[in-house]
Structures are given as structure tokens and as C-alpha cells.
Amino acid sequence: MKLLVTGGAGFIGSNFIRHMLGVQDEVHIVNLDSLSYAGNLENLSDLSSDPRYTFIRGDITSAQDVEKCFSQGIEAVINFAAETHVDRSILDASVFVRTNIEGTYVLLEACRRRKVSRFIQISTDEVYGSLDETGKFTEESPLAPNSPYAASKAAADLLTRAYHKTYGMDVIVTRCSNNYGTHQFPEKLIPLMILNALENKTLPVYGDGLQRRDWIHVKDHCSALQSVLMEGQPGRVYNIGSDQEKQNLEMVHEILRILKKPPELIEFVTDRPGHDRRYAIDASRLKRELGWKPKIRLEEGLAQTVRWYQENAEWVSRVRSGAYFEYYEQMYEKRDQTLKNS
Ligand code: NAD
Ligand code: TYD
Q1: Whose CA is nearest to atom 33 of ligand 1?
Q2: What pLDDT score was predicted for residue 9?
Q3: DSSP SS3 for 189
Q4: Checking CA distances to 140, which of 36, 85, 203, 340 falls within 20 to 30 Å?
Q5: Residue-level pLDDT at 72
Q6: Does residue 267 have a pLDDT over 70?
Q7: Is 255 exposed, middle or buried (0-12, 13-18, 19+ CB in 10 A)?
Q8: Which residues are near ligand 1 (CB < 6 Å)?
Q9: 2-180+217-243+279-296+322-341 belongs to which CATH class?
Q10: What's the CA gap between 281 and 297, in Å, rounded?
Q11: How far is the CA of 163 from the centre of ligand 1 (A)?
């Protein structure tokens, strides 16, 4: 199968590409990624010589860039490419609207024209909004996004649904809970707290820290996506989660415990505007219909993740400084110049 993965240089996309090439021999993956601040080719450097893997630098909002990929005979598309950080979306929503909504539209249109057999939109539980103390989000829960990020993802979900209803396209939307694991850009809760603790910096906890998230290891998310890609029903939405709900403060204390750092590093800071109080995912449809099961317990997965960040200080310093981005920027400029001159 020839698969187009967009956003494959990011956290989940890079884990997914490695997962798929590890479990399937008969797959070729084209990775289309614009290498935004969150995209890092170093995440996939071990695959650069694998003949089943091709990287194309490009933007999902550009029909031309997308066409360049489709001309390689793509059979299915998985759209990970997105702006993903809620705090950034609060400061400036424009790029979220562009990438998350317009980019999804450009991909859907290309799939329609090219009659691509399957389109998977990687969405998030944040489209459902916030829960009270009890209950879980099911696929029938109403969409009630509270941040510009979540609203842009919900808009893309609806557009994807419309392409199924209107044009009969084979599309699937997945909505996963908060991921953790290796290669996550250190602006999200888990890597940020690990790195601050390692450097004896304060750990900024928003508000009272009693917000709850439902944590899933990125490898379990990837195995769920493999099941959806292979066996999912067209037009269906699948929730993905692993029933591991924790308060933010509990997560931060656990990281400090693993690293043997004092709780005095915690600093309560001004809350995020529109901060969702609780997310919890009911993934029973995916388990029942496709037989998927998560494998990684939070305690074990979190300890492994902490260890990975401890052992990969160079990766951290390069993604933080943007050094890799500049390196590739120069490399691509040089390549484009050579192409122009030839
Ligand atoms: P990430 O921020 O780590 O990576 C996003 C990737 O998309 C980067 O490689 C970036 O360069 C690329 N990208 C951004 N704009 C682009 C554009 N216009 N064209 C091409 N590439 C572009 O994100 P992530 O955490 O890996 O999330 C991947 C997907 O999963 C997103 O769609 C996100 O909404 C969804 N999701 C994330 C989580 C989570 O906890 N991280 C949970 C559920 C769903
Ligand atoms: P985040 O990793 O940004 O994911 P999301 O907002 O998509 O759930 O944040 C997870 C939770 O941690 C969320 O409730 C906000 C909180 N948080 C902090 O308390 N401090 C921080 O510095 C960050 C980045 C997040």
C-alpha cells in the first residue's frame, strides 16, 4: 500500500511511520511535512535509507505541494499535519485556521479528484469540550470545542464528514485523548515538566492543577490507527483512549518522584483562558468492532518517557534551538538553488 502521511515529522506522525514500517513489509510511506517549529526530521533519521520511505517538504494548504505527493500514486492518506498547541492558538488562531481547516480541505479535494481509496483525519477528544466530574465522551457526544485549536479541529472533522455524505468518499475520523511518549516537542505538559525538573526550573501548573486528562502512550495510539486504517468502516468516527485518567497535579508529582526532585519546584501560575476541566474517552466502539486493546500502563510508560528525555539531551537542545530546522532550511535552499541552476 502506498500511504501519504502528513505531519510525519511531528510527535505522533513520526511514531506512526516507524510503527507502520516496523509491522508491514508491503507499505511505502510518503511523508509530507512543512517542518514547522514542531516538525523535526531528526525524529526519523533512522529511516532515511529505508527504500519504503520518502520525505517531501511541503505544506498541506498548497494544492501544488499536495499534488506533488499524489502524482506518486497514493492509495490512502492519514492527516496528522496540524498546529497543535492550545496556548499558541489562544495567542494567534490564524495559522490554526489555515493549516487545520484549509489544509484538510485541500487534502480532501485532492483525494476526491484522485479517487484515493481512504482518508483518515486525525482528530482529538478536545472537539467534545469539557466534562463534569463523571461520564465519558462517546462518538455521539456533541461537538463543543472551547479553544481556537479545538474549534479548528472540529471544523476539519465536519468537513471530512461532509465529503463522505456528499461525495461518498471513504473517510474516517479518529478522536484520541492526550498522548505522551518519546519525541514530543517540549511545550506540552509532560516533556515540559520533565525538562524543567531536570534543570531544577519551576514547573508551571495552570490554575489549581486539578484538571483531568486521559493519558495514552503514543505507541498505543499508533496501533489503534493501524487497526482503523486496515479495518475501519467508511464514514465512521472512532474514539481512541486507554482509560488512564489523572489530574495534572498528580502527573507532575509523579514526574518529580521519578526524577527524585522536590515538590517545591511546582509553581501555580495564572490559569489558561477557557481551560477545559476534564477529558475522558469511551473507546469501546474501537475495542468492540476492531478488537484493538491498549498495552502500555501509564506508570511504566511515563517512567520510560522520562528516561528517554534524560538520555536524549542533544535532541532536546536541537529542537529547542531550532538548529535542526535551520540545518534543513539551508539544505533545502542549497538543493533548490542547484535545481534552478541545472
Ligand atoms: P506536532 O505538533 O508534534 O506535529 C505536527 C506536525 O505537522 C509537525 O511535523 C509540523 O511540521 C507539521 N505541520 C504543521 N503545519 C503543517 C502544514 N501546513 N503542512 C504540512 N505539515 C505541517 O503534533 P502531534 O502532537 O504529533 O499531533 C499530530 C496530530 O494528532 C494533530 O492533528 C493533532 O491534532 C492530533 N492529536 C494530538 C494529540 C496529542 O496529545 N499530541 C492528541 C490527539 C490528537
Ligand atoms: P497540554 O499538554 O498543552 O495538552 P492539552 O491542552 O491539549 O490537554 O496540557 C495538558 C494539561 O496540562 C492542560 O490541562 C494544561 C496543563 N498545563 C499546565 O498546567 N502547565 C503547562 O505548562 C502546560 C503546557 C499545560
Answers
A1: 84
A2: 97
A3: helix
A4: 85
A5: 86
A6: yes
A7: buried
A8: 6-7, 9-13, 33-36, 38-39, 59-61, 80-82, 84, 99, 103, 122, 124, 153, 176, 178-179, 185
A9: alpha beta
A10: 16
A11: 22
Find cell 513520526 and name the residue.
14
pLDDT at 331 over 90: no
Global confidence as pTM:
0.95
The number of the ligand nearest the C-alpha atom of 274 reads 2
pLDDT at 329 over 60: no
Q: 83 CA to middle of ligand 1, Å?
A: 6
What three-state secondary structure class fits 180? strand
Contact status, residue 229 vs residue 78, Cβ threshold 8 Å: yes
Going by C-alpha positions, the residue among 43, 7, 16, 65 that lies closest to residue 324 is 43
Angle at 49 between CA 315 and CA 8, to 5 degrees: 55
SS3 226: helix
149 is catalytic: yes
